[in-house]
Specification:
Layout: H1 2-31, E1 37-39, E2 51-54, E3 57-59, E4 91-97, H2 106-117, E5 119-128, H3 130-142, E6 149-153, H4 165-179, E7 184-187, H5 190-193, H6 211-220, E8 224-226, H7 245-250, H8 262-275, E9 281-283, H9 293-302, E10 306-309, H10 314-317, H11 321-330, E11 335-336, E12 340-341, H12 347-355, H13 380-394
Parallel strand pairs: 4-5, 4-12, 5-6, 7-8, 8-9, 9-10, 10-11
Antiparallel strand pairs: 1-3, 2-3
This protein binds zinc ion (ZN).
Length: about 400
Amino acid sequence: MLLRIVLGLGLLGVPLAWVSLTRGADSASMAQQPGVEGVTSDTGDCPAGTTEVRPGSCRAPDLPPPSILDYRPRSTLVTEENLVPSAKFPVVDIHGHMQSLAEPGVIEDVVAELDELNVQVYVAADNLSGDRLVRTIEAIEASPHRDRFRVLAGIDFDEPGAPGWGERAARQVEEDIRTGAIGVGEVSKSFGLTITKADGSRLAVDDPDLDPVWETLARLDVPALIHTAEPPEFFEPPDFENERWLELALFPDRRNADNVRFEQLIEERDNLFRRHPDTKFIAAHLGWHAHDLERAAQLLDEFPNVWVELGAVLYDLGRQPRAARDFFIRYQDRILFGKDSFQPSEYPYYWRVFETADEYFDYYRDYHAFWKLYGMDLPDEVLRKVYHENAATLFAGLPSGI
Ligand SMILES: [Zn+2]
């Protein structure tokens, strides 16, 4: 009797096991059949092409799914919309990239756009040096709008590692500051990522060869705007879990998964800041810590000679409005406005995030962020500091009375 029961159960077990095995495998593939239910994989994820419709249960859509490029949902949210075409207080944009100001007519054209945005002073951060710098300064000086523009100088990275290249670069920087540049920058990401020495080795951000440059800036009391690394996701494989997949898919040269590590570059940068406490550094793009504001706070706490700038990281601030607001209030003396590429239509997004309490609104560039933004509703006192007062304190060469 007992034997019959055991045999019966065994017989029953086999098909059951078979069903779940096949069901698992089958149901995974079955789930990819439009509208058919399946189960999550062992990792708890749904198989590709399906989504979870109930806990542990996946289904494939029975309409052809759009690519992430083509799926552009129309928000049904009805919420307050306070567009801000012009900043509440005059702005100094310390991180400007546009066509050369030395080109005829450029200054006149741009001033009209700056007026609309309430950008009082635009600082060209295009690493100008020597003749290019002289021509640009002359164009500004000759224009009726001479107090609307300023220029940062570049560092000569032509012969990294050659004997005396650091001293030569320092002399050139000093000459450029004497010509009229109000600081250095934007020291580009290639410093650390791609610039190599004659022996083929990567030039590290904390390479002592450049000490004469940083010491010169300390002696002249002018700051350096420095871009180190890139968003951390740029150092990760561009797979389907990479938050910046679209940007990496659009711009192959931004893929750094096989390059020096993000943390290595940040360590070198911090060594540089630590070794030159009298030099004023502005970490461009919030030091690429906008997604990790505690880390940004640690940077500012450890280095009183460091400020941060906001170019091209609005997407990370606007998705955490409360934490970002707290950060801005806590470090209100250490944050400077900068935009990066000069696209007038994009500035109002910054104003709206900083000045309003608006919710769930679009960001201006899909390949940066597929998520929505929220306003930080910053106090006026903080806005004034971020918009122009901190820049006026840091850059002696800015026009007075902004
Ligand atoms: Zn940059």
